[in-house]
Amino acid sequence: MVTPSGRSTRLDPLSLPVRFDAHDTRADGGVRQVELPRRPIEVLQVIEYLRAFLIGREGWGTFDMLPIISGAFGVFRTGLVRAIGGFDPHSVGEDLDLVVRLHRRLLESGESYRIAFVPDPTCWTQVPADLKSLAHQRSRWQRGLAQVLWRNRDMLFRPRYGRVGSVMLPYLWLFELAEPFIELFGWLSIIAGAVLHVLSRAFLFEFLIYGYAFGTAISLGAVLLEELTYRRYQDWKDVARLIFYSFLEHIPYRQMHMWWRVKGVLQCAFGFQHHWHQMKRSEFAQQSSPAEGVSASSE
Question: In terms of Cα–Cα distance, which of 17, 219, 14, 45 is closest to 117?
């Protein structure tokens, strides 16, 4: 929830995957059992969301610099949303765009406010279950990020916008928008160095192991943090699978994700920012087998 003054609460849920009973006849599908999806591509997305919600957004919210409220999972003051014109129909990153415009409006007016993250509530939604849909989604997210940052570039490092202009937005420019290009350049440099024998085999091996171990440690930390605090998964097999896939996330899934993000920025630069793709979704009410891939998403 975004409030103009005083204490505030916003229900930005930590959503985890569920399994739906195949014999459930209720129209809403009926959540009968919390369980990991079976497809590896969906489990990898669960780890991503755990990392984003439990580490990323908890941190941003603590310092009153939360940049995004995912999809339909936010609660806003209606008057504030109307004051800034509501959701922008021309934005492909409508959730990020709305929150950044709220920050701008409230900072310009000098009002005391808070945009908070509350990890306790749970909502359910579907994530992409195939690589094509996932690639379109992640490219669109990156297009939306580029669009929002460019529209609000005048907020950068201006005193009137406080921490939002001096910390949050510069971080998004460097570590979210430019990061996939930096990572791509790093991979190309490493490969070129190895081919040209500029890098020793020992250094190359140590560098790759360090990068892999560091990224895996962050994912493992998010999984363990979830289990220590919220314990959404009661079956130890689900926890074991999350830990197992944490070791598999960084090759080749991370490299594919990097390329999708690069494509998203390039598409935005060349005028494709308004193009959407339909994501395949499972039917819940009349399915013959348990539905999978239900997790937090800003689709």
Answer: 14
Q: What is the DSSP letter of 159?
A: G
Cα separation, 52 vs 43, whole angstroms:
14
Domain ranges of the chain: 2-22+29-269
- Cis bond before residue 252 (omega within 30° of 0): yes
Q: How far is Cα of residue 108 from the mean position of the Cα atoms in its chain?
A: 28
10-residue mean pLDDT profile of the chain (299 residues): values are 45 35 44 81 91 86 91 83 93 93 96 87 78 94 95 97 97 97 94 89 89 93 86 85 93 94 93 63 49 37
Residue with tokens 């959503």, as numbered in its chain: 15
* Pair 20, 291: CB distance under 8 Å: yes
Tokens representing 131 are 């690589």
DSSP, residue by residue, 237-289: HHHHHHHHHHTTIIIIIHHHHHHHHHHHHHHHHTT-TT---PPP---STT-SS
Tokens of 293: 């891939």
Q: What is the pTM of this model?
A: 0.83
Do 257 and 138 contact (CB within 8 A), yes or no?
A: yes
Which two three-digit tokens encode residue 181? Answer: 């290009």
Instruction: Report which of 5, 224, 199, 1 is spatially closest to residue 116, judged by C-alpha positions.
Output: 1
Tell the residue number behind the tokens 């560098």, with chain if given.
207
Q: Residue 79 corresponds to which tokens in the numbers above?
A: 């008057």
Packing angle, helices 236-246 and 40-51, rounded to 10? 80
